[in-house]
Structures are given as structure tokens and as C-alpha cells.
Amino acid sequence: MRYLAGIWRLAIAALCFIGTSPAWHAVSLWAFLMYQIGFIAGIVMLWSGCASILRGVQPPALLRGFVLTYAFSLAAVHFFVTPAAEFGVPAQQVIPLSAQVLALIVVGMLAVDFFAFEPHRAFKPVYPLVWLVYLPLYAAFAIARAYWFPHSGPTANAYPYDYLIITQFTWGGAGVACLKIVAIYLAVGVVLCLFDRALPAKSAAE
Hints:
There is one protein chain. The chain has helices spanning 2-19, 21-25, 33-54, 61-80, 99-116, 127-131, 134-148, 171-198. It starts with a helix and ends in an 8-residue tail after the last helix. The longest helix is centred in the C-terminal third of the chain and has 28 residues, at 171-198. The chain has one domain. By secondary structure, the protein is mostly helical. It is globular, with a radius of gyration of 17 Å. The protein is built from eight helices and no strands. The chain crosses the membrane at residues 33-54, 61-81, 93-117, 129-149, 169-195. This is Permeases of the major facilitator superfamily. Keywords: Membrane, Transmembrane, Transmembrane helix.
């Protein structure tokens, strides 16, 4: 089973790199959170896939949980809360799939990997709060980048998401949007931890 797990994880890594390939041609696309998380997920799954096949050291639980939390949360936010500006980027030519379809495939494959191949009972209760740290760091980066480089893309005003535009900032609108997003990321992290505690410690890939 470890070979199957390894191949599965390498396939996820390949799809992540394919999905982020437009950003290698247009650097401004890295301002989108989806491209950042997609690339990080690709690195983690490449590491995990090679470790499964070669019996190496797997990525730490904190990093694996971070990738899962952000992948699932991004899907929830973009499909149910606010449209994803990233999905307007033309699909690459290697696999003729839209960004939405490719994102759904990766999220689905990550879910299968979590339930079928990952070891469990490794997430600590504090992890969901630790995973949230990336959100304010990303917001600060996106706002500072757009403020100092207003013509750098990937959008007309350089802000990757409308709720980050400080020139249109209102405490009510921005506060509600940010609370919704933080609540989703925190809820997904907590649910992941609950599943992690409920599932068997030993994975099928071991």
C-alpha cells in the first residue's frame, strides 16, 4: 500500500504544479492565495510521495495539517462565500481543465489521501490556531504589495481580493468578510483535528 500511497501523492503534487504553472509565466499571480497554497501543497505531497516509496521521513503533522486546512478552506471560501479571482486566469495547456475543476480534483485527492493513507492522532488541539497565523501574514503581504506597487497586477488595482482594498475599506464590510473567512479556516482546522483523533493511528500506507 505504501507504493500506492506514494504514487497517489506524487500525482497530487503533479496536479498542484500544473495548476500553479500560470504563475511561472505571470509572477503577479503569486499574489493569489490559491497559487501560494497550491505550490506549498505540491512541495509537501512531493516530499510525502517520495518518503512513502523510499521509506523516508514524512512531512511533520503540523505541515500536513496546514496544507489540508488551507486547501479545504480555500475551496469552501471560493465556492460558497466569495468568487475566486484566480479562476479567471486562463487554464494552462498541459491539461485542458478549468481552474475550478483542477482545484476540485486536487481537494478531492487530498481528502482521499487524508482518510486512506495518512497516519492519524498526530494533530494537537492547538494546531487549528497555529494554522491561522498564515492568514494575517498573507493579508499584510497582499495589502502592502498593492499599496506600494499599485500597477503590479494581477488585478487592475493590484489587490488580489476586493475585501483587502484599503481605499474602499469599511469596518463593517471588511470585518464581516474577514470574520467569515477566519471562521471557515478555524472550523475546517477543528474538524480535521476531530477526524484525526477519531481515525486509527496506523495508516494503510505503513
